[in-house]
From TrEMBL:
Residues 106-362 form the Pterin-binding domain. Gene3D superfamilies: Dihydropteroate synthase-like. It comes from Gimesia aquarii. This is Pterin binding enzyme. SUPFAM superfamilies: Dihydropteroate synthetase-like. The lineage of its organism: Bacteria, Pseudomonadati, Planctomycetota, Planctomycetia, Planctomycetales. One of its GO terms (biological process) is pteridine-containing compound metabolic process.
Amino acid sequence: MKQERILFVTGKLAEYSLREVLEKLAPQVGFEFEVIVLNVQVAALMHVPLVKRRLTVPDGIDWIMLPGMCKGDLQVLIDHFGIPFKRGPKDHFDLPEYFGQEGKAPKDLSQYDIEILAEINHAPLMSNAEILQQAEHYRQNGANLIDVGCIPGESTKRAGEIVRMLVDSGYRVSIDSFDRAEVEAAVGNGAELILSCNQTNLDWVSKLGTEVVAIPNLPSDFDSLCTIVDQLVQSDTPFRIDPILEPIGFGFTTSLERYYRARKEFPDFEIMMGIGNLTELTEVDTAGINVLLAALCQELQIHSVLATEVINWACSAIREFDYARRLIKYAIENKSLPKHIHYQLVMLRDAKLNERGSDALSNLAQNIRDPNYRIFAEENQLHVMNRDGYWKGTDPYELFDQFSEANPKGLDASHAFYLGYEMCKAVTALTLGKQYQQDQPLNWGFLSQEEVSANERRRKQGEEPQCGPR
C-alpha cells in the first residue's frame, strides 16, 4: 500500500529540528515526507501570499502542511496549486500529538563542557559543620569544585584547616585569597587552584607549582593580563585566564568584549568567568542570566565559571547554571534552538497553557451531575462549578461566598480548606501565566515539589474521593 507523501513547509530556524521530529515520526505513523524551507527565518511569519509566491511543489505530494501560525485563507493555495493544504500545530514539536503519537522522547542532557566552581563566601567565619553543609549543598546541585572564599584584607590561620577538611571529605578545592600565608597553607593541604594571580603576587604564587587564575591588575587593563600570561608561560606555571566580568553599569558590555578578545588572542588557553558579579549584583531572578552566561561560555569555549549563592534571589544559582550548561551544550551540538529541550529552567511561567475555552467550560457545567467542585483558571478568571451552579470571577472570597450560599450544608471544614487551597493555587497560576490543574501541584521547573493530592489522601484512608473531578 502506497504511503502518503506529505510536504512540510517551514522557515530556516526550524528546519533542522523539524527534520529530526519527522525522521522519527514518519515511520511510526506511516507516511513519507519532504521539507521545503521558504526564505524566511521564522515559520510563524509565513502568510498565504508569501507561500503562493515562493513555494514550488515537488511531484508526488499528496498534501501540504503549513506552520500552524501561517496567516491567510488556505483555499487560495488549494485553488492555486490544486492540492490540499492544512495547518499543523503552532509548534512542530507537537506534531506527534497532531498525528496521534506519544510525546517527544526525553533528550540526553548528561553532557557538559563547563566546570562550576562554587564559592563558600567568607568561609573562615563559618563553623566546620556549616562549611561541610554548604559544600555538600553545592555538590548536590552540580558544583565540580568548592572554592574557599577568604576575607579580603584579613589573614586567617584556618585556610589550610578548611581546605584539608574538604579534601579529606572528597571535595576538589580552590583557594580564593591574595594573602600569602593563607594561599600557601591551602596549597599545602590540597588546594588545586589559586584565585587569583596578578602583578601583586605573581613573584611568589608562580613558585607554588599549583594552577592559578590570571587576572588583569585592573579589569580595564587588558594589556596587564597579556603581560601576566607571558610571565606565567615563561615560568611554566599552569594557569587559566579570567578577564573579569564587570557588573551592569560598571563596564559590563566592555568586559564581554574582553572575553571575546581573550579567546581570539589566546586560542589555546583555558578561560574562567566569575559570574557572581552578574547573578549577585543584578536584582532579578537569576535563571535567565545563567542561561545567557552559559551560552556565552559555550560559544567562547570558556570551560569554567565561579559562582556563589549569597543573596537570596540567587539562592538556586548553582543548580540553575548546572541545568543551563547542559541545555546549551545540547542545543549547540544538535544545531537546535535552546527550546523544547527541557523545561527545568522555565519556573516563573509555564511553557504552554492548555485552555478549554468558554464554550467547553459552559458545556461541562451544564452536564455535571454530582456535588464535587471543579476549579479552572482560564481567561483571567477563576471558574468553579458543580451540579448546583457555575460561578466565575477574580475574587476567591466572593466566589466562596457564592457557591457556599448555594449549598450551605455541603461544605465541611476540611472540604472548605481544600477549596481555599486550590483557589489560592489557581489565583497564583492566573497571576503568573501558569497551567493550573485541580488537585495537582503547580509546575515550578526544577524547583517543583511533589504533592499528595487530596483525593489520593482520601484513597489512602479508605475514603471515597470527593474533591474535584473524578
